[in-house]
Amino acid sequence: MSEFSCLYVRLPNWVGDVCMSLPSLRALQAAGLPLVICARPWARDLLEGIDKQDFIAMRGKVGPDRAAVSAHRRALGADGRRARGLLLPDSLSSALVFRLAGLPSAGYRDDGRSLLLRWPVDKPDASLHAVESWHYLTRAALTRWGLPAGPAQPAPTLDLPLTPAHERAADEALAAAGLAGKRFVLIAPTATGLHKGKVKVWPGFDTLTRGLQNQGHTVVMCPPPAETDEARRNAPTAQLLPPLSLGAFAALTARSALVICNDSGVSHVAAAASARQLTLFGVTRPGRTGPWSPRAVCVGAEDAWPPEDEVERQARRLLDGQQ
Q1: What is the H or E stretch that residue 308 is in?
Q2: Helices and strands of the chain, counted as H and E runs
Q3: Which of 1, 51, 163, 191 is the most core-located residue (most Cβ within 10 A)?
């Protein structure tokens, strides 16, 4: 450890992927490594409860990101020269940033970037869940560095540590909406982008919302500002809460009786907060990107959305406590 001052960890660029990286971060912490987390700016709040040395905001552009990492290393002096890097993303650009910043790094040798890595790692079985794949990479790097690699399999839960500020913001949002101490269902009727040209949003949220409301359930949603209009179109009768930071939103999911969402960032945030959830699949693979949580129920398949009656039946079962 004397030659290893700290580890710069480049996290993936998507909310769900950052959540699925949590077991890898815990493995690094268990090995005794001070962490400098390099991730998109929004991840700072989500990961506020993670024990780390520092956070560097990554903008997704090689020049500015390389400059930010280099400046941080220079500020550490001799310790900065004894740092190493771990790249969870497969991209060529992420490897290039660390290489140009002078960080000897480990990562998957994907995308023709082996020459940019000091410790390239061969990818394991492609059928692994994303959590398992990043955990495998992390253990391979720790082994190469002669450090304790920990258990071969990640824990069954993501265990995002929430801060008092996250908890307080969620409680204040519920109180302002007249929901303090009340039971509610949280839906997320949006999903960013397309998957192989296909929309990632289950088309039955309006019908489901009205059905749950008819049964006496309060249904709320809390989309980010850019997705508010879409959420209103997809579930016009749901109660709309004001946008929250990611950490506060995670705390909100934990307070809900049930989260119903697409395979999206919300699904993984809910899993990270150990919320009870029902995740709907229609264009992605549950075995690869499904929520990493024993409290999650998944319906649908990669090529077929679940019918509305099945989703409502599963939701009622979970809300009745029959899981």
Answers
A1: helix 308-319
A2: 14, 14
A3: 191
Q: Per-residue confidence of the chain (323 residues) as pLDDT tens digits?
A: 447 899 999 999 999 999 999 999 999 999 999 999 999 999 999 999 999 999 999 999 999 999 999 999 999 998 888 999 999 999 999 999 999 999 999 999 987 899 999 999 999 988 899 999 999 999 999 999 999 999 999 999 999 999 999 999 999 999 999 999 999 999 999 986 655 666 689 999 999 999 999 999 999 999 999 999 999 999 999 999 999 999 999 999 999 999 999 999 999 999 999 999 999 999 888 888 899 999 999 999 988 999 999 999 999 999 997 44
- Of 291, 306, 228, 295, nearest to 258 by C-alpha is 295
Q: Hey, what amino acid is at 110?
A: D
CA distance 71 to 166: 30
CA distance 244 to 222: 7
Q: How far apart are CA 96 and CA 138, in angstroms?
A: 19
Handedness of CA 303, 308, 313, 315 (dihedral sign): positive
Listed in order, strand segments (DSSP E) in 31-161 are: 35-39, 54-57, 84-87, 105-108, 119-121
Q: Which one-letter amino acid corresponds to residue 212?
A: L
Encoded tokens for 274:
């150990």
Name the pTM for this structure: 0.95
**Residues whose CB is less than 8 angstroms from the CB of residue 22 and which lie 6 or more positions away in sequence, other chains included:** 158, 159, 160, 272
